[in-house]
Amino acid sequence: MDDQLKFLNQSAMSEQRRRPRVVILGAGFGGLSAAKALKSANADVVILDRHNYHLFQPLLYQVATAGLSPNQIATPIRQILSRQRNATVLMDRVVDVDLDTSEVVTPARRIGFDFLIVATGARHAYFGHDDWEAVAPGLKKIDEATDIRKRLLLAFEVAENTADAEMRQVALTFVVVGGGPTGVEMAGAIAELARNTIMRDFRNINTCDTRVVLVEAGPRLLPSFPEKLSASAEAQLRKLKVEVIRGDPVVECSASGVRLQSGAEFDAAMIVWGAGVMASPAARWLKSDADRAGRVIVGPDLRLPGHPNILVIGDTAAITDAAGHVVPGVAPAAKQMGQHAARAVVAMIAGRKYPPFVYRNYGNLATIGRKAAVADFGRLRLAGFAAWLVWGFVHVGFLIGFRNRISVMLDWAWSYFTFGRGARLITGDDR
Amino acid sequence: MDDQLKFLNQSAMSEQRRRPRVVILGAGFGGLSAAKALKSANADVVILDRHNYHLFQPLLYQVATAGLSPNQIATPIRQILSRQRNATVLMDRVVDVDLDTSEVVTPARRIGFDFLIVATGARHAYFGHDDWEAVAPGLKKIDEATDIRKRLLLAFEVAENTADAEMRQVALTFVVVGGGPTGVEMAGAIAELARNTIMRDFRNINTCDTRVVLVEAGPRLLPSFPEKLSASAEAQLRKLKVEVIRGDPVVECSASGVRLQSGAEFDAAMIVWGAGVMASPAARWLKSDADRAGRVIVGPDLRLPGHPNILVIGDTAAITDAAGHVVPGVAPAAKQMGQHAARAVVAMIAGRKYPPFVYRNYGNLATIGRKAAVADFGRLRLAGFAAWLVWGFVHVGFLIGFRNRISVMLDWAWSYFTFGRGARLITGDDR
């Protein structure tokens, strides 16, 4: 262990170890904002992620639908933190946390910590049907997005290549499961791809024959939005010819399609899963209580009960804040928690008290397509073009990296005027 | 077969079949320029490729070294030809050509042709050591480039993570096999990545300790260039601290490194193969004579001997043109042959004669790094900054797609001023 410590902090260890070490698990919105907020802290910051990049997940559906390429929405973590001298980036995978020795365990080593911030995010949940994952991929990682892009584009190739009318219609049918923001965005984007972008590209099929079916188990789309905006989102989707089905849960996913509780069946080339999330295995590592979605239950101080030096944030945590709000699993909430956790650690190091976390809700956005979106800013509610403009500015504004911002803006401008999309490549192993 | 014909040419087949069908195999520089040159021909053009995109191969090494992202150098074939109404794009894989029935055979169907243009390009050659491919990937396809990028970036992660000095040096050692343009470009680009781009990103390693070894079996680098430019290229590489070894062929590649004929051994994290090419299996499909590199031997009329309606072009063909030049395996030559083949087909349809092919050599370029390149325009020979500027303009100019051109120019400008690189993502399946 001593060797590892030395290796991790060559400079700090040249003298006696004095500075406390803060280990951050995960470089998503929560973890990265915690690391940055510790910039001037008198502490060594170690941030660990299994990928070498920070991913701007809210735009991942645009990679899946060929609008953007992966490097436009991902930035190397090392690059983001290259000038923060107290930060060390490790690309590694957490397998456990040793609460007795205060060490993070990875396949090859143990990393001691004085403070631990757990921000390992969430994965899809298949509600006990893990075998559905192979036929209904979700959308959390870059490789999943490029895989969905490949399946999507290959479906049109299959349709173009077949002389069998029935097979052609199946190849042109896409089912999106889940009426939350991801599902709404995917359904809208697939419909636009088919109806606008690739219209002229084929000779044997009419891509306007594409069927996009959006299935929501609950009574309305976008349940976290006001009812009026849910209805508006549905109307905007129907205008794009998306078939919206509500109140009818999926009971079966297979390579040939989906079956719903009502008995309705859809033969489809592709199913995209956006129905549920499950927190990372952090609760298991921390031997702590978890809610039904696997999230670690922490109080408004973000602390793991019984372990004041361990804080849990972002999608990994189930939190009701000091004002009594249930904190939603969205990027702005994760960022705020990351900053709060950093301040809390600084206060603990200094032996000061710090106030509990209060979530500030700046608004809620979901996009549907070109000039189509909904936005909820409390009293101000927008739909259609205005909401879409706000959505565009907010997302470009929050993208990390000046260069990415410009490149995404240019691509969007290009798509807007030409209806084209820049990233229509089928990559990945040949099968 | 009739069914297939009908399906492929619904419009043409609604009456009696009148228009001849030209089938083009491969949508690289040769095949695509043939298809475009047939735009106003009174013929149905069917272009078949196993990928859905045309790849600008000369810039592939920039994807492998994280300078550009795949979609910046690849454009969907359907998009390129979407407005050419006589062209049909098929994504399929050729397994054979039936010379008796004049049909192309794919796994699922047969496609009849009146004229066939074979432009299926080339692959790497391992000179009888096909087992080396797994440890020494080549650079012809997008998936190979992203795989090399992943190995390259992971090597620095391994070096950063290890406390063992010897292991660290191995992880920071890269061997490039082959001193042609690809090898020279890769070696220069890896050295620049290590020395400029990621310098500040690590805490435990000094990326300037990176060793890049370029091994050429022959007596000099860039053998297709004048000797003076070969020497200049080597000097420019040495300035980037690339170790250049000439006249010493590789006799063994393994997961741990390479061994040379002289007995010299290099333990390396990664080997990149740029030493030889082998034509696609076209000679086997066509039951024809091939040279040692597997290329179909055709005359200056580009015709397969005994089959005047079959033309072979690009890297698939071994051609000495009507002026007695051996046509080199470069993109401009493939484009010229594609255009020539198209004109030849039009002439044959009209029952006219057409002149034999003459290759026009507009020059030869290879880049080494930032402000470093060599250019050979016959009498005018350039090295260094001037050659590098010419190289940049020529490559951006030939990129297909207005949008790609702008996006690559912006990325290059950004890299030039910041020494940064935009596509440093480790993607692909987790292992």
From TrEMBL, chains A, B:
Superkingdom of origin: Bacteria
Q: Tell me the enzyme class.
A: oxidoreductase
Task: Write out the entry's keywords from A to Z.
Answer: FAD, Flavoprotein, Membrane, NAD, Oxidoreductase, Transit peptide, Transmembrane, Transmembrane helix
Gene3D superfamilies in the cross-refs = 3.50.50.100
Q: What is the E.C. number?
A: 1.6.5.9
Q: Which residues form the External alternative NADH-ubiquinone oxidoreductase-like C-terminal domain?
A: 363-421
Segments spanning the bilayer are: 382-402
Tell me where in this chain the FAD/NAD(P)-binding domain is found.
Answer: 21-338
Q: Sorted alphabetically, which Pfam families does this protein's record hold?
A: NDH2_C, Pyr_redox_2
Please list the GO terms describing molecular function.
NADH dehydrogenase (quinone) (non-electrogenic) activity
Q: Which reaction does it catalyse?
A: a quinone + NADH + H(+) = a quinol + NAD(+)
Q: InterPro entries given for it?
A: FAD/NAD-bd_sf (IPR036188), FAD/NAD-binding_dom (IPR023753), NDH-2 (IPR045024), NDH2-like_C (IPR054585)
Family according to the record:
Belongs to the NADH dehydrogenase family.
Protein name, please?
Answer: NADH:ubiquinone reductase (non-electrogenic)
